[in-house]
Write a structure and sequence with these properties.
Chain C: This is Cellobiose transport system substrate-binding protein. The complex is a heterotrimer of chains A (336), B (301) and C (452). Chain A is mainly alpha-helical and 336 residues long. Helices cover 71% and strands 1% of the residues of chain A. Chain A has helices at residues 24-74, 93-100, 102-133, 140-152, 155-165, 172-179, 191-218, 223-231, 236-247, 249-265, 268-273, 290-300, 304-335, and strands at residues 77-78, 88-89. In chain A, strands 1-2 form a two-stranded antiparallel ribbon. Chain C is an alpha/beta fold and 452 residues long. Chain C has 2 domains: 53-172 and 331-377, D-Maltodextrin-Binding Protein, domain 2 (3-Layer(aba) Sandwich); 174-328 and 406-450, D-Maltodextrin-Binding Protein, domain 2, CATH 3.40.190. The chains are: A mainly alpha (336), B mainly alpha (301), C alpha/beta (452).
Chain lengths: 336, 301, 452
């Protein structure tokens, strides 16, 4: 950054202190003041970032670290919920058995398909809704409140509504489909209907949430960027493509990362959509996600060690995805 | 002293240019929404609000009617009665107070700490910045379902069972918040503004107070709302740690509603409805905060 | 060129002054909140779980219960408090046992966060007896508590091998078959309960045969039975040994009784005798309201459930016949953890709540059938009737059934195994899968869940 001639920080002839002539004593005082200030400034610039990020890490060290270490340690043992301190060392057995575990891979496949079906439309719709909300609207507060209503609705109440909607014999969706001549679909019975239904609940619940995040980011896009694009003859759609989207890149990255992590861990919606009391994600585990499988093994079947290994395996999978993503984007950048 | 040479004709020229441009050509926040926009919003709002409205409809009915098919699509006459029973039975007054404290402190603290940390990660240079940021994101990647078991062991040792701090403190760890504010500030806080503030001799703390917080206001409002809801609706952890006879939060308090060999769904829905209404109020208050920040004016040439 | 932005001192935006005010408001909220928090924390410290003395010198006893207990609704707390003026009773209730039990386990293993009294459902009692018995007091040593005050199999369920009884039985769920008189008549079957009972006395196969007769006459309008899970449960509950043997080994795959029950239910499903429904779900509730099935395996509390979901015109249309073989479905126990602050008072309360007189009162109000045989001769039981069954003497019918229930070997993972056989097993047959496929899916799921 080029130094400016009119700023006070650097010692410049006739700079910040008008009326002073370069003399020996005043200069000494000024110099000392400036060096003191600049040293304080240097110290501040050096240490303040650590002070700013420290609270997060301190809180994490206090309340987040021990649970992580404990589950990591438990994953190397055979331990049940009914006796969490009674651990039998089994080494990596809980991890290696994952390779043979059909249910784990079934859940992984389901997590992938449900994740894609629920995340991609969700983020696109969220972007569109945010764009509309960015206009000057009447009753804008009402629209914004309505957007977060799904996230605020108690998940048990929401799932009851959706179970009623998606009921095979008496549900409203099958009733509507019947009116146009389609046979009733077993939403809770079959594989793809079940995954679509669960994805619909997820989309319903999280779209407004992401739309608000996009909206907040859109508020920070300076108006003159739009105006100069409009002056250049860009239509509204092209302004959206060339002004809005690029400015939102950091936020879009955020929602993609967070939604991916969230999609990998989803368990509330498939848990409550299943008519059964266990957590098997449907009679044939057709919509059991990894998060739900983890919950089933840990809380329903009480296998704390095994469930911990599943949790850390999920973490490892995300790391692998992240690394692959990095490699791909680096390869793309290198080739372009 | 240098002066800005601002040609007096320039504003007029700009105005002329602007007036030549049809209103419809401008995107962004100065444009009014057309009828299509309202239609889309109306559909979206209908879909978003329907389950909540149905919760109210269910709460206004009785258990027998709810079992019949087709399910009721309009209000019955039981709403006031069910709401009253739910309020008294679950002792919701106390639960509301407790949860407001918990969610309020949680949201406020997360917002402040995340903004400050996000600012550091976004705009300040320091050794280990990237590694630490990756660590922050990494902490989100372990599914939290099991963590509450060891957390309970910790809380039991600290003798915090049935105390609100057992619910507040673990909730303050928010990698989501830090990551969110970092991304937002990367985009919304131009370096020049920070530089200018520095140049005027501001320490980092003053920069945070006078530059970062005002610039981050829309994002802080959104983050605050999201974290408030998350704390308000949290069930698994508060349920493990708190009791109804001690210091319940709303979700703990309503967990017993409608009990009996035949669960009374209408009462359960009444409790769910009561539990959600304060949130809508909070949204209405904070929704107003999601307006443009100061940057729009400040960065004009 | 001048700096493009205003210097810091003049950087007052729309958020300037109001922002400072907002900051003050924020600070006020934080301090207020922290103050309230500190206040609440103190309160929490005083009223913390485990009971304590509140101001007037009263002892507070806290109970941790799940949805089906009904003590408060039957007025029992008020009655006890009148009899013992220095006692105050408070309850923590969770509607669903699926939420209650995992939390209870966590509290037991850390010995923290327990109430003075904790309820345990029959599905979990084996596990609690097997792994957490050392956290409970021995109720058999309480003054006035005698083993013969309860049905023998009920007492055994809560007793360890060393003879420690960790909980006193509250209610039981002796099963009969509840049937719709009108639907039976329409299908050409007898509707008098003696005759109906004779149709299938002693043999579940005869029950299926009756179902086939029903289906032939009723066609597609209604089903014979409510769900495959209900049938499987009824058949398995009448066996002496189901999933565990006397030494505690898991035998569900090799026990011929289990396979026979599964095959019988699968047969009923293949023949279209049972609805393709999972019990206690909204869709299943609707089939009750819409009178879609003729029979259901029926403990006394099921009558209350049917009443809660039925339309008004269904009253009096049901009746109760003796099941082919008796079994138990449901019931709970009350235990007193050692870690409580008022162990003796809690024990006295539990002994009182489970005494025959109180159990009879609960039956009258809640429909929870007593586990104390002495209550069976009380007027509340002998004269009991239910709206759904008109003037049928349900008290007598269920008392008889209760006495016939075998002492069954129970094990900690009973519920998981049964859930697997039902939700990942027989329900699939109603959806078109073969019995063999259903058995394979069920056993694969169960073995994975048991970690065999």
């Amino acid at each position: 950054m080029a130094t400016r001639s009119d700023i006070a920080a650097s010692p410049v002839k006739g700079g910040a202190a008008p009326g002073r002539t370069p003399g020996s004593r005043p200069v000494d005082k000024d110099d000392r003041r400036r060096t003191k200030l600049s040293r304080r400034w240097q110290r501040d610039a050096r240490w303040s970032p650590y002070a700013f990020v420290a609270p997060f890490f301190l809180l994490f060290a206090a309340f987040g670290l021990f649970p992580l270490i404990y589950t990591g340690w438990a994953s190397l043992h055979q331990v049940e919920l009914t006796a969490p301190t009674d651990m039998t060392w089994v080494g990596l057995k809980n991890y290696t058995r994952i390779f043979d575990d059909d249910f784990f891979w079934n859940a992984a496949r389901n997590t992938l398909t449900i994740g894609v079906i629920s995340t991609v439309p969700q983020l696109m719709i969220a972007m569109g809704i945010a764009h509309i909300l960015n206009y000057k609207l009447r009753a804008s507060t009402f629209w914004r409140v309505a957007m977060l209503a799904p996230y605020a609705t108690s998940i048990a109440a929401a799932t009851l509504v959706f179970v009623l909607l998606f009921g095979r014999d008496y549900g409203m969706i099958n009733w509507a489909l019947g009116a146009v001549g389609v046979d009733p679909i077993g939403w809770q019975d079959d594989k793809w209907p079940g995954q679509i239904a669960v994805s619909t609940i997820i989309i319903w619940r999280w779209t407004g949430y992401n739309a608000l995040i996009y909206l907040a980011a859109m508020q920070a896009i300076p108006q003159d960027l739009y105006e100069s694009a409009a002056l250049d003859g860009a239509s509204r759609w092209r302004q959206f493509l060339h002004v809005t989207l690029p400015s939102l890149r950091p936020t879009i990255l955020f929602t993609v990362v967070v939604s991916t992590i969230g999609a990998s861990q989803v368990f509330g919606e498939p848990l409550l959509f299943d008519p059964n009391k266990g957590a098997s994600g449907g009679a044939e585990h057709q919509f059991q996600t990894l998060g739900l499988y983890l919950y089933e093994q840990g809380w329903v079947n009480q296998h704390l060690g095994r469930a911990s290994a599943i949790a850390w395996a999920m973490f490892a999978i995300l790391i692998v995805i992240g690394i692959i993503n990095q490699l791909i984007s680096r390869r793309l950048r290198a080739s372009s | 002293m240098t002066t800005t040479v601002t040609p007096p004709e320039a504003p007029i020229v700009k105005e002329q240019k602007r007036s030549r441009l049809p209103k419809s050509a401008r995107a962004g926040g100065t444009l009014h929404g057309g009828p299509l926009a309202y239609v889309i919003l109306a559909v979206f709002t209908l879909v978003s609000l329907f389950p909540l409205v149905w919760t109210a409809i269910a709460a206004s009915r009785d258990n027998q009617r709810l079992a019949e098919n087709p399910p009721p699509l309009w209000f019955g006459s039981n709403l006031m009665k069910n709401l009253e029973i739910a309020w008294k039975d679950a002792n919701l007054g106390e639960a509301f107070l407790n949860t407001t404290i918990v969610a309020g402190i949680s949201a406020l603290t997360i917002v402040v700490l995340s903004t400050v940390a996000g600012f550091a990660f976004a705009k300040l240079r320091f050794k280990g910045r990237n590694a630490l940021m990756l660590l922050v994101i990494g902490t989100m990647m372990v599914p939290p379902q099991l963590s509450i078991i060891p957390l309970y062991m910790m809380v039991a040792k600290l003798d915090w069972t049935d105390q609100l701090q057992a619910v507040i403190f673990p909730s303050l760890v928010s990698a989501f918040g830090v990551f969110f504010m970092r991304q937002y500030l990367l985009q919304a806080l131009p370096d020049e503004v920070i530089e200018a503030a520095r140049v005027d001799g501001a320490s980092s703390w003053r920069v945070v107070w006078h530059v970062v917080f005002p610039a981050a206001r829309p994002a802080m409002a959104v983050l605050g709302m999201l974290m408030f809801v998350q704390a308000w609706n949290d069930f698994l952890w508060p349920f493990l740690v708190l009791t109804q006879t001690g210091n319940p939060t709303v979700q703990v308090a309503v967990a017993g509603l409608g009990r009996g060999y035949t669960p009374d769904q209408s009462l359960i829905m009444a409790g769910a409805l009561l539990g959600t209404l304060p949130l809508l109020l909070v949204f209405a208050i904070f929704g107003k905060q999601i307006v443009g920040g100061i940057m729009q004016g400040a960065v004009k040439g | 060129m001048r700096a493009r932005t205003l210097p810091l001192t003049r950087q007052r935006s729309g958020g300037g002054k109001p922002f400072a005010r907002k900051a003050l408001a924020v600070a006020a909220v934080v301090s207020l909140g922290t103050g309230l928090l500190a206040g609440c924390a103190d309160d929490g410290g005083d009223d913390s779980s485990g009971g304590s003395s509140s101001g007037e010198g009263k002892t507070t006893i806290t109970l941790g219960l799940f949805g089906t207990m009904g003590f408060k609704e039957a007025g029992l707390y008020a009655e006890y408090e009148k009899l013992n003026p220095d006692i105050k009773i408070e309850e923590n209730v969770v509607e669903r046992n699926e939420n209650y039990y995992p939390a209870l386990v966590n509290h037991l293993t850390t010995n923290s966060g327990l109430m003075d009294v904790q309820a345990v459902e029959v599905a979990n009692i084996a596990e609690v007896v097997g792994t957490q018995a050392d956290k409970f007091t021995d109720m058999s040593k309480v003054e006035g508590v005698k083993k013969d005050g309860w049905l023998p199999w009920k007492w055994e369920q809560a007793t360890t091998k060393d003879g420690q009884t960790i909980g006193l039985g509250t209610d039981v769920g002796p099963m009969a078959i509840c049937y719709r008189k009108d639907l039976f008549e329409k299908a050409g079957l007898p509707s008098d309960r003696e005759q109906v009972g004779k149709l299938w006395a002693g043999d579940w196969n005869k029950f299926i045969a009756t179902g086939e007769k029903y289906k032939k006459a009723a066609g597609k309008d209604t089903f014979f039975m409510d769900s495959p899970g209900g049938l499987l449960n009824a058949v398995l509950s009448s066996e002496k040994e189901k999933f565990y043997d006397a030494s505690g080994q898991v035998i569900y795959k090799t026990n011929p009784a289990v396979k026979a029950a599964f095959d019988l239910t699968a047969e009923a499903a293949e023949k279209g005798l049972v609805q393709s429904q999972t019990q206690f779900q909204p869709a299943w509730d609707t089939t009750i309201a819409n009178s879609k099935f003729a029979t259901v395996a029926c403990p006394p509390w099921m009558l209350g459930y049917i009443k809660g979901k039925s339309k008004a015109d269904a009253a009096g249309k049901w009746d109760v016949a003796v099941a082919p073989k008796s079994g138990n479905w449901g019931g709970s126990f009350l235990g007193v953890p050692k870690s409580g602050k008022n162990v003796e008072e809690a024990q006295k309360l539990v002994a009182w709540l489970t005494a025959p007189e109180q159990q009879a009162k609960l039956f009258k109000v809640q429909g929870s059938f007593p586990s104390a045989p002495a209550a069976y001769s009380s007027p509340e039981v002998t004269g009991a009737t239910n709206e759904m069954t008109g003037d049928a003497p349900i008290g007598e019918i269920f008392s008889e059934a209760a006495k016939q229930i075998p002492v069954q070997v129970i094990g900690p993972k009973d519920q998981i195994i049964q859930q697997g056989l039902t939700d990942n097993g027989v329900i699939l047959v109603t959806k078109g899968k073969s019995a063999k496929e259903a058995w394979e899916t069920a056993t694969k799921t169960i073995d994975n869940n048991l970690d065999q």
